[in-house]
Amino acid sequence: MLRVLTVATVAAYLIVLAACRKPGSIYCFALVTPFTSEPRLLAAQYLLNVGIFQCDGWDVISNVSAEVLLQGHWEAVDGVKSNFGIVDTELFVKQVRGPPGFDPSDHFLHTNAKHLANTPVFQKV
Q1: Which of 8, 12, 59, 93 has the fewest CB atoms found within 10 Å of its own CB?
Q2: In the chain, which ranges are continuous DSSP H helix?
Q3: CA gap 87, 111 in Å, rounded
Q4: Per-residue CA distances from 23 to 12, 15, 59, 94, 116 (Å)
């Protein structure tokens, strides 16, 4: 079942899940950015049953459907569908000044480069 979630809904959902877990259990979630290397990594982790998939409970969150996020990795799509949520927020933001040593002139970046600024996005989710 496809769920479209607002940021507030996701936050409330995660709080309830955390509160309902038995002591000593681990709940994990992954916020996955589409059209990056993250979906392929997540699909590989699902197939190997490692990472968040070893936790007692887990969810995958993105701003696109599981079918779009994991396109071509259909076994992973089928496996994560029941624990998949779509958050209605933009995951990419304008490029921000990086940490010391970050080189914005790096040949992998260009003037319109964007990247995931984790802190604000995770605060929303």
Answers
A1: 8
A2: 7-20, 38-48, 66-69, 74-80, 118-124
A3: 28
A4: 20, 15, 19, 40, 33
Instruction: Kindly tell me the burial class for residue 69, based on how many C-beta atoms sit within 10 Å of its own C-beta (0-12, 13-18, 19 or more).
Output: buried
Query: What would the mean pLDDT of 16-30 be, rounded to a whole number?
Result: 73
Residue type at 11 in one-letter notation: A
CA 44 to chain centre: 14
pLDDT on residue 79: 95
Give the rounded distance of the alpha carbon of 19 from its chain centre. Answer: 21
Which pLDDT score is estimated for 94? 57
Q: What is the rounded CA–CA span in Å between residue 64 and residue 87?
A: 8
In the chain, the amino acid numbered 71 is Q
Long-range contacts of range 81-84, CB-CB < 8 Å, 24 or more positions apart?
81/1, 82/1, 83/58, 83/59, 84/2, 84/3, 84/59, 84/60
